[in-house]
User: Which sequence fits this backbone?
């Protein structure tokens, strides 16, 4: 069984071969000598180092107190989640699954061996509680592939105790700097080992500005065409516009999806659209492990990435050939459906539970809470196992490969070379016009099923328009950002209405089950009436909300 540990640490270099005196660090009552541990770690990656390119490390280590398999995911600078599994001869299945979106069908092989003599000190407070562990590591690195060599170095590592205050590391660093110690130039031992054990020929080529390995690029070619990438599935650096796109994807929490990248800042309409699509491809790949780990909101964010990509295909049909993108869109729709099985049931259950909690106790007749729990489990049973099987399946992995090929060799049409402020703005205006038509159609229908369906269609289009405005924000600036906010507000109002429709359907199902079991259906009827009222309020608020949106938006 794998376990997860949040690791907060800093690495340093020194010209001295000994640890500085840390007895003067504020809050430290004693520095305890814990002796020297001999560590032997073999790091695994694909032959083209895909994990290293994504700042992931997978190792098998013996020696020390935590021998076993370790997989590390970056969370923030100096912060990583370390997922551990017991020692075995082969990569544990639990860890192999977490890197599958990166590795796909490639084999994980030993790439580097690190042997370290670790001289450990514990920094403790006046009550003997551990504040941090400080170690002096004498490291020998040997590359296990190709014609790589060996390297040796000494480094200092300071790791915060579990639950400790990260500010304490600043205090330790101040003392270390006073002693002449400097922060390490490498983010990890593996990164340094890979760099220093590479064949000299490769290092010389990189200094000359040439590509050295798959997933590794050197200096950007000044003549590189906008929108082109350097290697399959990988791109170089992005510029300010990429940051603007990522800002438009606010709400994607840990793990943070890194900003998309290209050799130069986007110039054409095609550049902007491809930058946005790369961000969605990257989101799928990077959120995959979070979904497998069942981290909060990971499924929802991954599902949103599929929707954003599909929306871009539809909105920018003058930029990308839909004969190519439509089949990909269907596969994304399939994936969104698989991701949504658990999510939709979870949202519905949360809404029903919250509504039930609002009722005075005398109005809850019969075993309503028990029936709700049973109903929810029955509808959601086995969905997580099914989702994990989907993520391990060939169809999903083929979709990731297809998205790589799409952004690396895009089916660009003539409009792709056009001015972004014209081509992209035209696409967004078209989307907004479709929202307007759907909202007006819904408002013209009498209350009932037909209006419910029309409002749901308007909601879906409002969501798609919000996504196209996100993609347009780097090119169009504040007007597109305003449209994102307006569409999000409209989508929220229409979404509450649709949630009410779905909740009433669920209440009918629950009431029928209760009646068949001889239970009172009173409470379900009461909740149904309240949901009807919520829908009525949403419909009543729509004309004014739409008047505000249609009067304010000028994209």
Assistant:
């Amino acid at each position: 069984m794998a376990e997860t540990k949040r690791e907060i640490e800093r690495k340093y270099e020194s010209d001295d071969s000994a640890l500085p005196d840390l007895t003067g660090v504020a809050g430290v009552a004693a520095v305890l000598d814990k002796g020297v541990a001999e560590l032997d770690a073999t790091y695994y990656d694909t032959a083209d180092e895909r994990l290293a390119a994504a700042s992931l490390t997978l190792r098998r280590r013996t020696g020390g107190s935590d021998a076993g398999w370790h997989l590390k995911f970056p969370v923030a600078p100096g912060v990583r989640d370390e997922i551990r599994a017991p020692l075995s001869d082969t990569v544990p299945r639990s860890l192999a699954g977490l890197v599958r979106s990166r590795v796909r069908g490639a084999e994980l092989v030993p790439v580097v061996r690190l042997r370290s003599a670790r001289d450990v000190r514990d920094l403790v407070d006046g009550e003997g509680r551990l504040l941090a562990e400080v170690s002096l590591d004498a490291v020998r690195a040997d590359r296990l592939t190709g014609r790589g060599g060996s390297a040796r170095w000494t480094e200092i590592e300071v790791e915060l105790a579990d639950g400790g205050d990260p500010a304490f590391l600043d205090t330790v660093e101040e003392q270390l700097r006073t002693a002449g110690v400097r922060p390490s130039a490498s983010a990890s031992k593996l990164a340094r080992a890979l760099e220093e054990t590479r064949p000299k020929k490769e290092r010389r080529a990189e200094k000359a500005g040439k590509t050295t390995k798959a997933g590794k690029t050197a200096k950007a070619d000044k003549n590189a065409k906008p929108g082109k990438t350097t290697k399959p599935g990988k791109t170089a650096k992005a510029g300010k516009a990429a940051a603007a796109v990522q800002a438009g994807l606010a709400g994607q929490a840990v793990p943070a999806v890194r900003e998309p990248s290209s050799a130069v800042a986007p110039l054409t309409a095609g550049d902007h659209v491809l930058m946005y699509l790369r961000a969605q491809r990257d989101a799928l790949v990077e959120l995959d492990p979070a979904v497998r780990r069942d981290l909060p909101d990971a499924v929802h964010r991954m599902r949103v990435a599929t929707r954003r990509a599909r929306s871009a295909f539809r909105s920018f049909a003058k930029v990308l050939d839909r004969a190519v993108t439509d089949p990909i869109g269907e596969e994304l729709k399939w994936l969104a459906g698989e991701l949504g099985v658990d999510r939709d049931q979870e949202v519905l259950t949360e809404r029903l539970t919250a509504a039930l909690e609002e009722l005075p106790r005398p109005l809850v007749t019969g075993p309503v809470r028990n029936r709700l729990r049973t109903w929810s489990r029955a509808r959601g049973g086995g969905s997580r196992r099914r989702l994990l099987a989907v993520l391990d399946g060939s169809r999903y992995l083929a979709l990731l490969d297809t998205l790589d090929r799409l952004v690396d060799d895009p089916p660009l049409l003539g409009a792709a070379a056009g001015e972004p402020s014209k081509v992209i703005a035209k696409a967004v205006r078209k989307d907004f016009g479709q929202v307007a038509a759907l909202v007006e159609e819904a408002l013209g229908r009498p209350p009932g099923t037909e209006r419910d369906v029309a409002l749901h269609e308007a909601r879906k289009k409002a969501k798609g328009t919000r996504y196209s405005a996100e993609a347009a924000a780097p090119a169009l600036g504040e007007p597109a950002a305003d449209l994102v906010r307006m569409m999000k507000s409209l989508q929220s109002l229409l979404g509450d209405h649709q949630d009410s429709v779905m909740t009433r359907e669920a209440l009918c199902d629950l009431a029928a089950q209760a009646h068949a079991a001889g239970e009172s259906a009173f409470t379900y009827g009461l909740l149904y009436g309240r949901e009807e009222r919520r829908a009525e309020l949403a419909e009543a608020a729509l004309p004014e909300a739409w008047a505000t949106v249609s009067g304010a938006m000028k994209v």
